[in-house]
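CORE FACILITY INTAKE
Project code: CF-77B
Contact: R.S. (postdoc)
Sample description: multi-component assembly, two entities in total
Requested service: structural model of the whole complex
Turnaround: standard
Below are the sequence entries exactly as provided by the requester. Do not edit them.
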Amino acid sequence: MATNLQPYKFYVFKPDYYSFVTSSGVEYLCYFTPYAEYFKKYSTDISSRFYAFNLELSNKKLKPHGIDRRIADTVITIVGDFLNAQINAVVYVCDNSDGREAARSRKFLSWFDYYEHPSSKIIQVSNNFDSGGLFIYTTLLVHKKNKRIKDIILAYLDLTKENEK
Amino acid sequence: MPSATDTKKKTARSKRGSRVKPMTKVEMFQKMLDDQKFIREAIQNGVSFQELKDKYGYKFATV
């Protein structure tokens, strides 16, 4: 069986979201929401650079079956497109509403694992922690050439550190 | 041009006015997850991005 490892063709629905449809007919929407409100202790120059990454099925009744590597390739391409300006950073907080946040985190980390999907431009930093009895899985993605990369990583690690003052 | 007294008055008003208690870390992450869930369910129920912005006040990065 021939295997196509190319990303799916995606569409940009300006100004809000990306969309792609898999070979099994499942449509995904990908969008980014501002996270500046969670970085208020930093200057706007830093706080305004943070965005949440979201990937959703457009229709929850149509669920994917099996492993589809092309979804990972497509998401990497979309996030790469978003981070290409070398200004913003993306935070992924795993949905925990169905108790599958750990699996979700493992999958997301594998998508951006350098050895599985070599990326010359994106690095990921992952920090999981206990937040008042709620275990939170998070990942930061940032362009390697982002001029504020150090400040962005430090702010992310500060937000996701376990102990609260 | 505002006088120094005017500036101080404004500053004092701002301080009195800023009574919004900062979110704790637990509240922050709960809000992140709640917003994420709300938007996901809205999209899956046919709510448009425009409606999420206009009616519910959500913001999205320009892509």
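Facility notes:
- Chain A has a mean pLDDT of 90.
- Residues 95 and 160 of chain A are 16 Å apart (CA to CA).
Invoice: internal transfer
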